[in-house]
Amino acid sequence: MPQKQRVSNLNKKTMLSPISHLPLVVILLSLSLATSATHEESFVRCLNLNSDRTFPFNSLIYTPNNPSFSSVLDSSGQNKRLLEPSAPKPKFIFTPTSDSHVQAAVICSKKLGIYFTVLSGGHDYEGVSYVSETESLFIVIDLIKLREIKVDIESNTAWVQAGATNGELYYRIYEKSSVHGFPAGVCTSLGLGGHITGGAYGTMVRKYGLAVDNVLDAKIVDAEGRILDREAMGEDLFWAIRGGGGGSFGIILWWKIKLVPVPSTVTVFTVNKTLEQGATKLLQRWQEVAPYVDENLFIRIHIQRTQRTVTTSYNALFLGEAKSLLGIMKKSFPELGLTRKDCLETSWIKSVLYFAGFPSGTNPQVLLGKSLMKKTFFKGKSDFVREPIPETGLEGLWKRVVTEDNPLIVWSPYGGRMEQFSESDTPFPYRKGTRFISLYLSLWQDGDKNVAKHIDWIRNVHNYMAPYVSSFPRGQYVNYRDLDLGVNTKNSTSYIEASVWGYRYFKNNYDRLVKIKTKVDPQNVFRHEQSIPPLPV
Hints:
Blueprint: H1 24-50, E1 61-62, H2 69-76, E2 93-94, H3 99-112, E3 116-119, E4 139-142, E5 149-152, E6 157-161, H4 166-176, E7 180-181, H5 192-195, H6 205-208, E8 215-221, E9 227-228, H7 230-233, H8 235-241, E10 251-258, E11 260-261, E12 266-274, H9 279-289, E13 297-306, E14 309-318, H10 322-332, E15 344-346, H11 348-356, E16 377-385, H12 391-401, E17 407-413, E18 436-444, H13 451-465, H14 495-506, H15 509-520
Parallel strand pairs: 2-4, 3-4
Antiparallel strand pairs: 1-2, 5-6, 6-10, 7-11, 8-9, 8-10, 12-14, 12-15, 13-14, 13-17, 16-18, 17-18
Family: Belongs to the oxygen-dependent FAD-linked oxidoreductase family.
Cofactor: FAD
InterPro entries: BBE (IPR012951), FAD-bd_PCMH (IPR016166), FAD-bd_PCMH-like_sf (IPR036318), FAD-bd_PCMH_sub1 (IPR016167), FAD-bd_PCMH_sub2 (IPR016169), Oxid_FAD_bind_N (IPR006094)
Protein backbone atom coordinates (compact mmCIF):
# COMPACT_ATOMS: atom_id res chain seq x y z
CA MET A 1 0.00 0.00 0.00
CA PRO A 2 1.97 3.25 -1.16
CA GLN A 3 2.33 6.79 0.50
CA LYS A 4 0.42 9.82 -0.73
CA GLN A 5 1.32 13.49 -0.40
CA ARG A 6 -0.52 16.59 -1.63
CA VAL A 7 0.23 20.33 -1.68
CA SER A 8 -1.85 23.44 -2.40
CA ASN A 9 -3.39 24.51 -5.73
CA LEU A 10 -1.37 25.63 -8.71
CA ASN A 11 -1.21 29.36 -9.20
CA LYS A 12 -3.17 29.86 -12.39
CA LYS A 13 -2.35 33.55 -13.01
CA THR A 14 -0.96 33.95 -16.52
CA MET A 15 0.32 37.07 -18.25
CA LEU A 16 -1.64 37.57 -21.50
CA SER A 17 -0.38 39.03 -24.76
CA PRO A 18 -2.66 40.99 -27.13
CA ILE A 19 -3.91 37.93 -29.06
CA SER A 20 -7.56 38.83 -29.31
CA HIS A 21 -7.46 38.37 -33.08
CA LEU A 22 -6.93 34.59 -32.65
CA PRO A 23 -9.79 32.07 -32.40
CA LEU A 24 -10.84 31.26 -28.81
CA VAL A 25 -9.82 27.60 -29.10
CA VAL A 26 -6.30 28.60 -30.19
CA ILE A 27 -6.03 31.11 -27.35
CA LEU A 28 -7.08 28.57 -24.73
CA LEU A 29 -4.71 25.92 -26.12
CA SER A 30 -1.83 28.39 -26.19
CA LEU A 31 -2.48 29.43 -22.60
CA SER A 32 -2.67 25.80 -21.46
CA LEU A 33 0.65 24.90 -23.08
CA ALA A 34 2.34 28.04 -21.80
CA THR A 35 1.12 27.47 -18.24
CA SER A 36 2.28 23.84 -18.27
CA ALA A 37 5.70 24.83 -19.59
CA THR A 38 5.98 27.59 -17.01
CA HIS A 39 5.26 25.19 -14.16
CA GLU A 40 7.82 22.66 -15.34
CA GLU A 41 10.49 25.28 -16.03
CA SER A 42 9.85 27.11 -12.75
CA PHE A 43 10.00 23.81 -10.88
CA VAL A 44 13.37 22.92 -12.44
CA ARG A 45 14.84 26.36 -11.69
CA CYS A 46 13.65 26.10 -8.11
CA LEU A 47 15.08 22.59 -7.73
CA ASN A 48 18.50 23.83 -8.80
CA LEU A 49 18.33 26.66 -6.30
CA ASN A 50 17.31 24.37 -3.42
CA SER A 51 19.29 21.20 -4.11
CA ASP A 52 22.72 20.37 -2.79
CA ARG A 53 24.28 20.72 -6.23
CA THR A 54 23.39 21.69 -9.78
CA PHE A 55 21.77 18.72 -11.47
CA PRO A 56 20.21 18.12 -14.92
CA PHE A 57 16.73 17.87 -13.45
CA ASN A 58 15.09 17.91 -16.87
CA SER A 59 16.28 14.32 -17.27
CA LEU A 60 14.19 13.33 -14.25
CA ILE A 61 10.97 14.93 -15.43
CA TYR A 62 8.44 13.31 -17.75
CA THR A 63 5.71 15.43 -19.31
CA PRO A 64 2.81 14.15 -21.46
CA ASN A 65 4.88 15.24 -24.48
CA ASN A 66 7.65 12.82 -23.48
CA PRO A 67 7.34 9.43 -25.27
CA SER A 68 8.10 7.69 -21.95
CA PHE A 69 5.39 9.50 -19.94
CA SER A 70 2.71 6.81 -20.27
CA SER A 71 5.09 3.91 -19.71
CA VAL A 72 6.56 5.56 -16.58
CA LEU A 73 3.10 6.22 -15.14
CA ASP A 74 1.72 2.81 -16.10
CA SER A 75 4.77 0.98 -14.74
CA SER A 76 4.21 2.49 -11.30
CA GLY A 77 0.41 2.53 -10.96
CA GLN A 78 -0.96 -0.92 -10.13
CA ASN A 79 -4.75 -0.59 -10.54
CA LYS A 80 -5.72 -0.49 -14.23
CA ARG A 81 -9.09 0.96 -13.23
CA LEU A 82 -7.21 4.16 -12.41
CA LEU A 83 -4.88 4.10 -15.42
CA GLU A 84 -7.60 4.29 -18.05
CA PRO A 85 -7.22 7.13 -20.61
CA SER A 86 -10.21 8.85 -18.97
CA ALA A 87 -8.51 8.91 -15.55
CA PRO A 88 -6.88 12.20 -14.48
CA LYS A 89 -3.21 12.46 -15.47
CA PRO A 90 -0.43 14.50 -13.84
CA LYS A 91 1.08 17.50 -15.60
CA PHE A 92 4.45 15.86 -15.14
CA ILE A 93 6.22 13.13 -13.20
CA PHE A 94 9.37 13.87 -11.20
CA THR A 95 11.68 10.90 -10.42
CA PRO A 96 14.22 12.07 -7.81
CA THR A 97 17.51 10.21 -7.39
CA SER A 98 18.52 11.48 -3.93
CA ASP A 99 17.03 12.54 -0.62
CA SER A 100 17.95 16.14 -1.34
CA HIS A 101 15.90 16.04 -4.55
CA VAL A 102 12.81 15.04 -2.55
CA GLN A 103 13.54 17.74 -0.01
CA ALA A 104 13.87 20.33 -2.77
CA ALA A 105 10.66 19.08 -4.41
CA VAL A 106 8.66 19.77 -1.24
CA ILE A 107 10.21 23.23 -0.84
CA CYS A 108 9.57 24.12 -4.48
CA SER A 109 6.04 22.75 -4.57
CA LYS A 110 5.15 24.92 -1.58
CA LYS A 111 6.87 27.95 -3.06
CA LEU A 112 5.22 27.58 -6.48
CA GLY A 113 1.84 26.48 -5.17
CA ILE A 114 2.02 23.07 -6.88
CA TYR A 115 -0.24 20.27 -5.73
CA PHE A 116 1.51 16.90 -5.75
CA THR A 117 1.19 13.22 -4.95
CA VAL A 118 4.04 10.91 -3.95
CA LEU A 119 4.30 7.36 -5.20
CA SER A 120 6.54 4.61 -3.84
CA GLY A 121 4.97 1.43 -5.23
CA GLY A 122 1.63 2.40 -6.71
CA HIS A 123 -0.42 -0.15 -4.78
CA ASP A 124 -2.88 2.28 -3.22
CA TYR A 125 -6.25 0.62 -3.83
CA GLU A 126 -7.81 3.90 -4.95
CA GLY A 127 -4.71 5.21 -6.72
CA VAL A 128 -4.41 8.40 -4.68
CA SER A 129 -0.63 8.23 -5.10
CA TYR A 130 -0.88 8.84 -8.84
CA VAL A 131 -4.42 10.13 -9.50
CA SER A 132 -6.26 13.13 -8.10
CA GLU A 133 -10.02 13.33 -8.26
CA THR A 134 -10.10 16.60 -6.30
CA GLU A 135 -7.50 18.59 -8.23
CA SER A 136 -7.52 19.02 -11.99
CA LEU A 137 -3.83 19.99 -12.05
CA PHE A 138 -1.23 18.01 -10.11
CA ILE A 139 2.20 16.40 -10.41
CA VAL A 140 3.54 13.04 -9.23
CA ILE A 141 6.80 12.59 -7.33
CA ASP A 142 7.73 8.99 -8.10
CA LEU A 143 10.32 7.44 -5.75
CA ILE A 144 11.04 4.56 -8.11
CA LYS A 145 14.75 5.48 -8.33
CA LEU A 146 15.23 5.54 -4.54
CA ARG A 147 15.65 1.81 -3.90
CA GLU A 148 18.87 1.42 -1.88
CA ILE A 149 18.91 -1.27 0.81
CA LYS A 150 21.69 -1.56 3.42
CA VAL A 151 21.52 -4.85 5.36
CA ASP A 152 23.63 -5.25 8.51
CA ILE A 153 23.37 -8.83 9.76
CA GLU A 154 25.67 -8.16 12.71
CA SER A 155 23.16 -5.68 14.21
CA ASN A 156 20.08 -7.46 12.77
CA THR A 157 18.98 -4.24 11.06
CA ALA A 158 18.57 -2.72 7.62
CA TRP A 159 18.06 0.77 6.21
CA VAL A 160 15.61 0.68 3.28
CA GLN A 161 14.75 3.50 0.88
CA ALA A 162 11.10 4.25 0.28
CA GLY A 163 11.09 3.21 -3.38
CA ALA A 164 12.38 -0.30 -2.70
CA THR A 165 9.90 -3.17 -2.87
CA ASN A 166 9.16 -5.98 -0.45
CA GLY A 167 10.71 -8.41 -2.90
CA GLU A 168 13.93 -6.43 -3.16
CA LEU A 169 14.20 -6.24 0.63
CA TYR A 170 13.57 -9.97 1.06
CA TYR A 171 16.22 -10.77 -1.58
CA ARG A 172 18.84 -8.42 -0.12
CA ILE A 173 18.34 -10.02 3.31
CA TYR A 174 18.66 -13.48 1.73
CA GLU A 175 21.94 -12.41 0.07
CA LYS A 176 23.42 -11.88 3.52
CA SER A 177 21.66 -14.61 5.53
CA SER A 178 19.35 -17.57 5.06
CA VAL A 179 18.11 -17.36 8.66
CA HIS A 180 16.86 -13.77 8.69
CA GLY A 181 13.67 -12.26 7.31
CA PHE A 182 11.20 -9.42 7.74
CA PRO A 183 7.45 -9.62 8.53
CA ALA A 184 5.96 -7.47 5.75
CA GLY A 185 3.42 -8.25 3.04
CA VAL A 186 3.05 -11.24 0.72
CA CYS A 187 2.90 -9.13 -2.46
CA THR A 188 6.52 -8.72 -3.54
CA SER A 189 6.01 -5.57 -5.66
CA LEU A 190 4.72 -3.42 -2.79
CA GLY A 191 6.70 -0.19 -2.30
CA LEU A 192 7.96 -0.10 1.28
CA GLY A 193 7.56 3.67 1.61
CA GLY A 194 3.78 3.43 1.58
CA HIS A 195 3.27 -0.18 2.64
CA ILE A 196 4.72 0.24 6.14
CA THR A 197 2.88 3.51 6.81
CA GLY A 198 -0.40 1.56 6.99
CA GLY A 199 0.82 -1.15 9.34
CA ALA A 200 1.76 -3.97 6.91
CA TYR A 201 1.06 -7.61 7.72
CA GLY A 202 2.23 -10.83 6.11
CA THR A 203 2.79 -14.52 6.73
CA MET A 204 4.76 -13.93 9.95
CA VAL A 205 2.22 -11.57 11.54
CA ARG A 206 1.34 -14.12 14.22
CA LYS A 207 5.01 -14.62 15.13
CA TYR A 208 6.40 -11.06 14.88
CA GLY A 209 3.44 -8.72 14.50
CA LEU A 210 3.20 -6.04 11.83
CA ALA A 211 6.05 -4.49 9.89
CA VAL A 212 5.56 -1.27 11.91
CA ASP A 213 6.20 -3.23 15.09
CA ASN A 214 9.68 -3.89 13.73
CA VAL A 215 10.61 -0.34 12.67
CA LEU A 216 13.43 1.25 14.69
CA ASP A 217 13.94 4.60 12.95
CA ALA A 218 12.95 6.56 9.87
CA LYS A 219 13.93 9.58 7.79
CA ILE A 220 11.23 11.84 6.41
CA VAL A 221 10.82 15.17 4.68
CA ASP A 222 8.44 17.27 6.77
CA ALA A 223 6.14 20.15 5.84
CA GLU A 224 9.01 22.64 6.20
CA GLY A 225 11.21 20.69 3.82
CA ARG A 226 13.49 19.42 6.58
CA ILE A 227 14.92 15.90 6.67
CA LEU A 228 14.22 14.44 10.11
CA ASP A 229 15.16 11.16 11.77
CA ARG A 230 13.39 9.68 14.81
CA GLU A 231 15.27 11.83 17.32
CA ALA A 232 14.65 15.04 15.36
CA MET A 233 10.97 14.37 14.61
CA GLY A 234 10.09 13.28 18.14
CA GLU A 235 8.13 10.28 19.39
CA ASP A 236 4.67 11.63 18.50
CA LEU A 237 5.44 11.97 14.81
CA PHE A 238 7.39 8.71 14.81
CA TRP A 239 4.28 7.03 16.27
CA ALA A 240 2.03 8.60 13.63
CA ILE A 241 4.00 7.47 10.59
CA ARG A 242 4.02 3.84 11.79
CA GLY A 243 0.45 2.92 10.92
CA GLY A 244 -1.29 6.27 10.44
CA GLY A 245 -1.41 5.84 6.66
CA GLY A 246 0.66 7.58 4.00
CA GLY A 247 0.33 11.12 2.78
CA SER A 248 -0.57 13.04 5.93
CA PHE A 249 2.63 13.77 7.82
CA GLY A 250 5.54 13.88 5.38
CA ILE A 251 7.39 11.92 2.72
CA ILE A 252 9.10 8.76 3.92
CA LEU A 253 12.69 8.58 2.64
CA TRP A 254 14.07 5.66 4.65
CA TRP A 255 12.95 3.06 7.16
CA LYS A 256 15.35 1.44 9.61
CA ILE A 257 13.95 -2.00 10.31
CA LYS A 258 14.70 -4.83 12.71
CA LEU A 259 15.38 -8.16 11.01
CA VAL A 260 13.76 -11.23 12.56
CA PRO A 261 15.11 -14.79 12.85
CA VAL A 262 13.68 -17.51 10.61
CA PRO A 263 14.61 -21.20 10.65
CA SER A 264 16.73 -22.67 7.88
CA THR A 265 13.80 -24.93 6.99
CA VAL A 266 10.19 -23.80 6.78
CA THR A 267 7.14 -25.69 5.53
CA VAL A 268 4.37 -24.54 3.20
CA PHE A 269 1.18 -26.17 1.99
CA THR A 270 -1.99 -25.47 0.04
CA VAL A 271 -5.07 -27.64 0.47
CA ASN A 272 -8.24 -26.97 -1.53
CA LYS A 273 -11.78 -27.78 -0.45
CA THR A 274 -14.95 -27.18 -2.47
CA LEU A 275 -18.46 -26.82 -1.09
CA GLU A 276 -19.10 -30.41 -2.14
CA GLN A 277 -16.09 -31.47 -0.03
CA GLY A 278 -17.45 -29.87 3.13
CA ALA A 279 -15.84 -26.44 2.81
CA THR A 280 -18.48 -24.69 4.92
CA LYS A 281 -18.07 -26.78 8.08
CA LEU A 282 -14.31 -26.84 7.66
CA LEU A 283 -14.14 -23.05 7.39
CA GLN A 284 -16.31 -22.77 10.49
CA ARG A 285 -13.68 -24.83 12.31
CA TRP A 286 -10.79 -22.79 10.84
CA GLN A 287 -12.21 -19.67 12.51
CA GLU A 288 -11.90 -21.41 15.90
CA VAL A 289 -8.37 -22.68 15.26
CA ALA A 290 -6.32 -20.31 13.11
CA PRO A 291 -6.07 -17.34 15.53
CA TYR A 292 -5.13 -19.56 18.49
CA VAL A 293 -2.88 -22.28 17.07
CA ASP A 294 0.92 -22.26 17.49
CA GLU A 295 2.21 -18.75 16.58
CA ASN A 296 4.72 -20.28 14.14
CA LEU A 297 1.80 -21.37 11.95
CA PHE A 298 -0.07 -19.02 9.62
CA ILE A 299 -2.99 -20.49 7.64
CA ARG A 300 -4.81 -18.06 5.40
CA ILE A 301 -7.90 -18.75 3.30
CA HIS A 302 -8.53 -17.91 -0.36
CA ILE A 303 -12.19 -18.02 -1.36
CA GLN A 304 -12.85 -18.10 -5.10
CA ARG A 305 -15.48 -19.07 -7.62
CA THR A 306 -14.53 -22.14 -9.65
CA GLN A 307 -17.01 -23.04 -12.35
CA ARG A 308 -20.36 -23.33 -10.56
CA THR A 309 -19.07 -23.82 -7.04
CA VAL A 310 -16.87 -22.13 -4.42
CA THR A 311 -13.37 -23.31 -3.60
CA THR A 312 -11.61 -22.52 -0.32
CA SER A 313 -7.80 -22.82 -0.34
CA TYR A 314 -5.87 -23.32 2.90
CA ASN A 315 -2.54 -21.63 2.20
CA ALA A 316 0.01 -21.92 5.02
CA LEU A 317 3.51 -21.13 6.25
CA PHE A 318 5.01 -22.95 9.22
CA LEU A 319 8.30 -21.73 10.67
CA GLY A 320 9.73 -25.20 11.12
CA GLU A 321 9.93 -28.70 9.67
CA ALA A 322 7.03 -30.75 8.30
CA LYS A 323 7.21 -33.32 11.10
CA SER A 324 6.52 -30.67 13.74
CA LEU A 325 3.78 -29.11 11.60
CA LEU A 326 1.97 -32.43 11.17
CA GLY A 327 2.01 -32.94 14.94
CA ILE A 328 0.45 -29.52 15.53
CA MET A 329 -2.17 -30.04 12.82
CA LYS A 330 -3.12 -33.50 14.13
CA LYS A 331 -3.75 -32.00 17.55
CA SER A 332 -5.32 -28.66 16.61
CA PHE A 333 -6.89 -29.02 13.16
CA PRO A 334 -7.23 -32.71 12.21
CA GLU A 335 -10.38 -31.87 10.22
CA LEU A 336 -8.24 -30.52 7.35
CA GLY A 337 -6.67 -33.96 6.88
CA LEU A 338 -3.18 -32.63 6.18
CA THR A 339 -0.66 -35.28 5.07
CA ARG A 340 3.11 -35.31 4.60
CA LYS A 341 2.50 -35.37 0.86
CA ASP A 342 0.74 -31.98 1.10
CA CYS A 343 3.77 -30.37 2.76
CA LEU A 344 6.75 -28.78 1.05
CA GLU A 345 9.87 -28.13 3.10
CA THR A 346 11.82 -25.18 1.76
CA SER A 347 13.78 -22.07 2.74
CA TRP A 348 12.17 -18.84 3.93
CA ILE A 349 13.11 -16.96 0.74
CA LYS A 350 11.52 -19.69 -1.37
CA SER A 351 8.40 -19.50 0.78
CA VAL A 352 8.22 -15.84 -0.28
CA LEU A 353 8.16 -16.98 -3.91
CA TYR A 354 5.57 -19.66 -3.09
CA PHE A 355 3.14 -17.20 -1.53
CA ALA A 356 3.71 -14.70 -4.33
CA GLY A 357 2.59 -17.33 -6.84
CA PHE A 358 5.86 -17.96 -8.65
CA PRO A 359 6.34 -21.43 -10.19
CA SER A 360 8.38 -24.00 -8.29
CA GLY A 361 12.09 -23.67 -9.02
CA THR A 362 11.98 -19.92 -9.73
CA ASN A 363 15.29 -18.21 -9.00
CA PRO A 364 14.91 -15.76 -6.08
CA GLN A 365 16.57 -13.10 -8.23
CA VAL A 366 13.16 -12.61 -9.84
CA LEU A 367 12.36 -10.54 -6.74
CA LEU A 368 14.64 -7.83 -8.10
CA GLY A 369 12.44 -7.44 -11.17
CA LYS A 370 10.83 -4.07 -11.75
CA SER A 371 7.28 -5.39 -12.14
CA LEU A 372 6.27 -8.65 -10.52
CA MET A 373 2.49 -8.49 -10.54
CA LYS A 374 0.09 -8.93 -13.42
CA LYS A 375 -2.00 -5.78 -13.44
CA THR A 376 -5.75 -5.90 -13.47
CA PHE A 377 -8.79 -3.74 -12.87
CA PHE A 378 -10.01 -4.10 -9.31
CA LYS A 379 -11.96 -2.69 -6.40
CA GLY A 380 -11.33 -3.79 -2.82
CA LYS A 381 -12.83 -3.54 0.66
CA SER A 382 -11.93 -5.00 4.03
CA ASP A 383 -13.22 -6.04 7.45
CA PHE A 384 -11.90 -7.24 10.80
CA VAL A 385 -13.67 -10.23 12.34
CA ARG A 386 -13.89 -10.79 16.09
CA GLU A 387 -16.43 -13.63 16.35
CA PRO A 388 -16.84 -16.75 14.18
CA ILE A 389 -19.16 -16.29 11.21
CA PRO A 390 -21.94 -18.92 11.52
CA GLU A 391 -22.60 -21.48 8.81
CA THR A 392 -25.73 -19.62 7.72
CA GLY A 393 -23.61 -16.50 7.20
CA LEU A 394 -21.10 -18.46 5.13
CA GLU A 395 -23.84 -20.01 3.02
CA GLY A 396 -25.20 -16.54 2.23
CA LEU A 397 -21.70 -15.46 1.22
CA TRP A 398 -21.37 -18.42 -1.16
CA LYS A 399 -24.57 -17.39 -2.95
CA ARG A 400 -23.01 -14.01 -3.65
CA VAL A 401 -19.56 -15.31 -4.63
CA VAL A 402 -20.95 -17.45 -7.45
CA THR A 403 -22.65 -14.44 -9.06
CA GLU A 404 -19.42 -12.54 -9.76
CA ASP A 405 -17.04 -13.27 -12.65
CA ASN A 406 -13.72 -13.23 -10.79
CA PRO A 407 -14.13 -12.63 -7.05
CA LEU A 408 -11.41 -13.18 -4.48
CA ILE A 409 -11.83 -13.12 -0.70
CA VAL A 410 -8.76 -13.57 1.51
CA TRP A 411 -8.95 -14.28 5.24
CA SER A 412 -5.68 -13.88 7.16
CA PRO A 413 -5.57 -14.89 10.85
CA TYR A 414 -4.19 -12.74 13.63
CA GLY A 415 -3.61 -13.82 17.22
CA GLY A 416 -0.22 -14.84 18.55
CA ARG A 417 2.09 -11.81 18.79
CA MET A 418 -0.77 -9.50 17.77
CA GLU A 419 -2.51 -10.25 21.06
CA GLN A 420 0.37 -8.64 22.96
CA PHE A 421 -0.19 -5.11 21.61
CA SER A 422 -2.72 -2.59 22.85
CA GLU A 423 -4.90 -0.65 20.42
CA SER A 424 -2.85 2.51 20.98
CA ASP A 425 0.70 1.14 20.70
CA THR A 426 0.63 2.20 17.05
CA PRO A 427 -2.11 3.90 15.01
CA PHE A 428 -3.13 0.45 13.69
CA PRO A 429 -5.66 -0.59 16.37
CA TYR A 430 -6.94 -4.03 15.35
CA ARG A 431 -4.89 -6.22 17.63
CA LYS A 432 -6.15 -8.14 20.66
CA GLY A 433 -9.43 -9.95 20.07
CA THR A 434 -9.27 -9.77 16.26
CA ARG A 435 -9.55 -13.27 14.81
CA PHE A 436 -8.78 -12.38 11.19
CA ILE A 437 -8.78 -9.66 8.57
CA SER A 438 -11.00 -10.13 5.52
CA LEU A 439 -10.09 -8.69 2.12
CA TYR A 440 -12.76 -8.63 -0.60
CA LEU A 441 -11.77 -8.09 -4.22
CA SER A 442 -13.53 -7.94 -7.53
CA LEU A 443 -11.04 -8.29 -10.39
CA TRP A 444 -11.75 -7.86 -14.07
CA GLN A 445 -10.01 -7.39 -17.42
CA ASP A 446 -12.81 -5.97 -19.59
CA GLY A 447 -11.79 -2.36 -18.99
CA ASP A 448 -14.54 0.14 -18.32
CA LYS A 449 -17.31 -1.93 -19.95
CA ASN A 450 -18.80 -3.39 -16.76
CA VAL A 451 -17.23 -1.31 -14.00
CA ALA A 452 -20.58 -0.54 -12.35
CA LYS A 453 -21.48 -4.22 -12.24
CA HIS A 454 -18.25 -5.21 -10.49
CA ILE A 455 -18.30 -2.34 -8.01
CA ASP A 456 -21.96 -2.97 -7.21
CA TRP A 457 -21.09 -6.58 -6.47
CA ILE A 458 -18.35 -5.76 -3.97
CA ARG A 459 -20.51 -3.13 -2.28
CA ASN A 460 -23.35 -5.62 -1.93
CA VAL A 461 -21.05 -8.30 -0.49
CA HIS A 462 -19.60 -5.81 1.98
CA ASN A 463 -23.08 -4.74 3.05
CA TYR A 464 -24.11 -8.37 3.47
CA MET A 465 -21.15 -9.06 5.79
CA ALA A 466 -21.97 -6.19 8.17
CA PRO A 467 -23.70 -8.34 10.86
CA TYR A 468 -20.71 -10.69 11.08
CA VAL A 469 -17.78 -8.29 11.46
CA SER A 470 -16.46 -5.66 13.86
CA SER A 471 -18.81 -2.79 14.71
CA PHE A 472 -18.84 0.63 16.44
CA PRO A 473 -16.84 1.33 14.40
CA ARG A 474 -16.87 -1.21 11.60
CA GLY A 475 -13.14 -1.47 11.10
CA GLN A 476 -11.36 -1.29 7.77
CA TYR A 477 -7.66 -1.42 6.87
CA VAL A 478 -6.12 1.83 5.64
CA ASN A 479 -3.82 -0.06 3.25
CA TYR A 480 -6.98 -1.37 1.57
CA ARG A 481 -8.20 2.17 1.05
CA ASP A 482 -11.91 2.58 0.25
CA LEU A 483 -13.14 5.94 -1.04
CA ASP A 484 -16.74 4.77 -0.62
CA LEU A 485 -16.27 5.88 3.00
CA GLY A 486 -15.98 9.50 1.86
CA VAL A 487 -13.36 11.96 0.64
CA ASN A 488 -11.87 15.30 1.53
CA THR A 489 -13.11 18.10 -0.69
CA LYS A 490 -10.89 20.39 -2.74
CA ASN A 491 -8.86 22.80 -0.58
CA SER A 492 -10.61 21.55 2.53
CA THR A 493 -10.36 18.79 5.10
CA SER A 494 -12.83 18.58 7.92
CA TYR A 495 -12.24 16.81 11.24
CA ILE A 496 -15.89 15.76 11.37
CA GLU A 497 -16.10 14.56 7.77
CA ALA A 498 -12.76 12.79 7.94
CA SER A 499 -13.77 11.08 11.18
CA VAL A 500 -16.09 8.84 9.12
CA TRP A 501 -13.10 6.99 7.69
CA GLY A 502 -10.66 8.09 10.39
CA TYR A 503 -12.39 6.10 13.14
CA ARG A 504 -12.91 3.10 10.87
CA TYR A 505 -9.23 2.94 9.99
CA PHE A 506 -7.75 3.98 13.33
CA LYS A 507 -10.50 3.85 16.01
CA ASN A 508 -9.69 6.28 18.85
CA ASN A 509 -6.15 6.73 17.54
CA TYR A 510 -7.70 9.06 14.97
CA ASP A 511 -7.92 11.84 17.57
CA ARG A 512 -4.24 11.58 18.45
CA LEU A 513 -3.36 11.56 14.74
CA VAL A 514 -5.34 14.77 14.24
CA LYS A 515 -3.49 16.46 17.11
CA ILE A 516 -0.11 15.43 15.70
CA LYS A 517 -1.12 16.57 12.22
CA THR A 518 -2.18 19.97 13.60
CA LYS A 519 1.20 20.34 15.29
CA VAL A 520 3.51 19.22 12.47
CA ASP A 521 1.52 20.29 9.38
CA PRO A 522 -1.02 22.97 10.31
CA GLN A 523 -1.14 24.29 6.72
CA ASN A 524 -2.11 20.83 5.47
CA VAL A 525 0.78 20.60 3.04
CA PHE A 526 0.45 16.82 2.85
CA ARG A 527 -3.09 15.87 1.97
CA HIS A 528 -5.17 13.65 -0.27
CA GLU A 529 -8.69 12.29 -0.56
CA GLN A 530 -8.52 10.54 2.82
CA SER A 531 -5.66 12.23 4.64
CA ILE A 532 -5.68 13.18 8.32
CA PRO A 533 -6.97 16.77 8.70
CA PRO A 534 -5.44 19.44 10.93
CA LEU A 535 -7.72 21.26 13.33
CA PRO A 536 -8.53 24.86 12.36
CA VAL A 537 -5.95 27.32 13.68
